[in-house]
Design brief:
Elements lengths: L1 H20 L4 E6 L5 H18 L5 E6 L10 H7 L4 E5 H4 L18 H23 L1 E7 L4 E5 L13 E4 L2 H9 L3 E4 L5 H7 L4 E5 H7 L7 E8 L3 E6 H5 L3 H34 L13 E3 L3 H23 L1 H10 L1 H4 L8
Parallel strand pairs: 1-2, 1-3, 6-7, 6-8, 9-11
Antiparallel strand pairs: 3-10, 4-10, 5-8, 5-9
Length: 348
């Protein structure tokens, strides 16, 4: 593992050295997940085309998605802190393995819809920006989301309790807490391995994005999608502070002006694709993709919505606080408790 990590450092150090010898106007960006619309239709276009147009040709950039750059997602914040990756995108669910306090706004069961997610991220954003700046030397420039992460299952289900006894793919500790709370067995699996595990029978269900699940082909190997959003794949786009401060002042101003627009476009796309993903998996109207599935969409009942809130309050939030410590409980109570009407428990 040390050799692998050292190799990554050398690789990105070479990129940085190259960037220093190239014209200063060209930025090198590590973006979000490749192959999804948020990247191909928004991030990639902004950095490779729009930046040059907006700056009158003075500034350009190249971008590569982090999952195709050989960068372990959980190490992205470390690499930005070191300056090896000057500009990078990090999924909160991945970096919260090492830094659990940063995962607060995307805990499983917290945000049942985009309006709630907006309030959550808005309330936590000042804390997130300050933590990145003061502890990790990173400047927060944008917050992205992906379509809602919902449950795809091989066998039919009608309610949350039907997940009991099923091996379910998860991507974060709080998703694992949630699945365990309903009697399921959480199985940590990389996104790229979801289809392999489903086809082999290693997992019975998978939590993933509605549209990304369709892109993977889950509609071909599963029969039901339970449409309760467990989380949203919240990601931060940030810069090493020294690298950002070294940019020309007009470029800094341009990025601070335009990146909020890119962020808004990504949010709108993800909200739209949450519903379109369900439509494409089930073959309903509203799917703009050429391939449509025949899955059954199971809508959560009022009883299951109440169960979601109970699980979050009694299992997910306490589990996060136990892993994270008293400082995280304090951060929650100062930022999100007023919004959610729920205080974090004291650390036992």
């Amino acid at each position: 593992m040390l050799v692998y990590f050292a190799g990554l450092l050398m690789f990105f150090a070479s990129l940085l050295c190259h960037a220093q010898t190239a014209p200063e106007q060209r930025l090198r960006i590590v973006g979000g997940l490749g192959g999804v619309t948020q990247y191909t239709g928004h991030e990639e276009q902004f950095w490779t085309r729009d930046l040059a147009t907006l700056s009158g040709g003075r500034y350009t950039a190249s971008i590569v998605p982090f999952d195709r750059a050989g960068v372990p997602g959980q190490e992205m914040l470390n690499l930005m802190q070191l300056g090896v990756v000057p500009f990078g995108t990090a999924l909160l669910s991945q970096i919260s393995t090492q830094y659990p306090e940063l995962g607060a706004p995307d805990m499983a069961g917290l945000n049942p819809d985009v309006p709630t997610l907006r309030r959550t991220v808005g309330a936590f954003r000042p804390y997130l920006a300050a933590a990145l700046r003061e502890r990790y030397g990173a400047e927060l420039l944008a917050v992205y989301i992906y379509p809602a992460q919902e449950v795809f299952c091989y066998r039919p289900l009608q309610q949350l309790s039907d997940l009991a006894g099923r091996r379910t793919r998860v991507s974060s500790s709080t998703q694992a807490d949630f699945i365990s709370a309903v009697g399921g067995t959480p199985v940590y699996t990389e996104f790229s391995q979801i289809m392999t595990n489903m086809k082999s029978g290693n997992t019975d269900c998978a939590v993933t994005g509605t549209m990304s699940g369709h892109t993977l082909g889950l509609h071909e190997v599963t029969s039901a999608i339970y449409t309760m959003p467990l989380s949203w794949g919240v990601a931060v786009f940030a810069a090493n502070r020294e690298s950002f401060n070294a940019l020309p002042a007009d470029l800094q101003a341009l990025l601070r002006k335009e990146l909020p627009k890119l962020e808004a476009a990504v949010w709108t796309q993800s909200e739209r694709e949450t519903d379109e993903g369900i439509a494409c998996n089930t073959g309903a109207a509203g799917c703009g993709k050429p391939t449509k599935g025949r899955m059954t969409a199971v809508r959560p009942s009022p009883q299951d919505e109440a169960r979601r809130r109970e699980i979050f309050a009694t299992r997910v939030l306490p589990g996060w606080v136990q892993r994270c410590g008293p400082e995280c409980a304090k951060a929650w109570n100062q930022t999100l408790a007023p919004v959610m009407g729920l205080r974090a428990p004291a650390v036992q």
